[in-house]
Amino acid sequence: MTARPEDYAPALDHAVAHTLAWLASLPDRPVRPRATADELSGVFGGPLQSGPSDAAEVVDLLARQAEPGLMAMPSGRFYGWVIGGTLPAALGADWLVSAWDQNAAMRYSTPATAAIEQAAGEWLLDLLGLPAHADVGFVTGATMANFTGLAAGRQQVLADAGWDLDRDGLTGAPRIRVLVGAERHATVDQALRYLGLGAPVEVPADEQGRIRLDALADELARGSGPVILCLQAGNIHSGAYDDIGAACALAREHGAWVHVDGAFGLWAAASPATRHLMSGHELADSWATDAHKTLNVPYDCGIVAVARPGALAAAMGTQASYLVRTDGGPSDPQDRVPELSRRARGVPVWAALRSLGRSGVADLVERLVRHARALADGISAIEGATVLNDVVFTQVSVSFGDDARTREVTARLLADGTCWMSGSRWQGRDILRVSVSNWSTDDTDVAASLTALHRACEGRAPS
Question: N6-(pyridoxal phosphate)lysine is carried by which residues (predicted)?
């Protein structure tokens, strides 16, 4: 018998109450969690009970026991690891996705989610200035977006070299040279490992982490055979952008596939104020971004776009007699992503874009940049603090003198709990890294965060 609404109502009612309580706590709760994973393992673990439990009671138990181990990542004072919050419309849409329980693989079986994701993809291409004919896939995050875009590139450059990857595999194939900037994100190397392409060729970068065009030209001229070039739209430490247009022009001279890793930075193209950072990005072949970062949709949702017709489906597509296809029209969602079974990740993207509109997306990007610059200005006024990067987008990297001092200030700040700024290491020194990614961050959050940083520098406890 099909489940009845009343079977779900108690558990969902309790989940709504706990969700609203969690959201209400965010303005005032410390950002740091109060319990460790080791401490909570004993709470959640132990032998599984012998019989069933009431669904609503399970939800209550889950919420109550998890609460001490939750970090306030949705807080406007969370600036760690380039993690955004969740827009209200996107959160509501994500709940619907779970309730609808659609396997968003085929247009035939799930026409609503297929149409929603198609519309979201078209909006994204338009907003980000990408070719209107590009294919768009919704994957788990930036790592898999990079993987998928690079898989399409691998398929295409080997086909261009006369090699049938599907039939013959990689053994004996022409060696693909993959060129990357010295400061690319680690997930690019991770994706290359997944694809069996080995270690990339590292091209020197400048002081802000941008790939050097002179060194790129030399490296392109140094070899022959299939080439993939990975560029960066937003350095993880400086926020700096490779000169994508000029690099694409160099790559075209050598028949290279160009992939752009724009996990958070691709969204600069959506604002007239920051679009110049992305000049020439439409000349690339594939692009990767992460919607849970700058766009602020729930986990998990990465986006890949591929310009060359058929390359994405050739790399990702699946054929089987039981997979019913519609005649004509766009390809099935399953042909654009690694997974066959997946949730309809594009639905919260559609909801976020529909709630914001074109001007709202631009305003969101511009607010994040404005708050990053305000934090950088405030930090620069702290004695002993040095902002190390040109703040062109949403990233701020700070030193407080020597490494030991920087680590000490970082530890004090995180223990304070008012805000969260992650430590890192950049250009041979320890830093405090600020990533402004949450739609809800406001001037009050910025001021409170700067006050907390002052306390950390002075060694004072919160009042």
Answer: 293
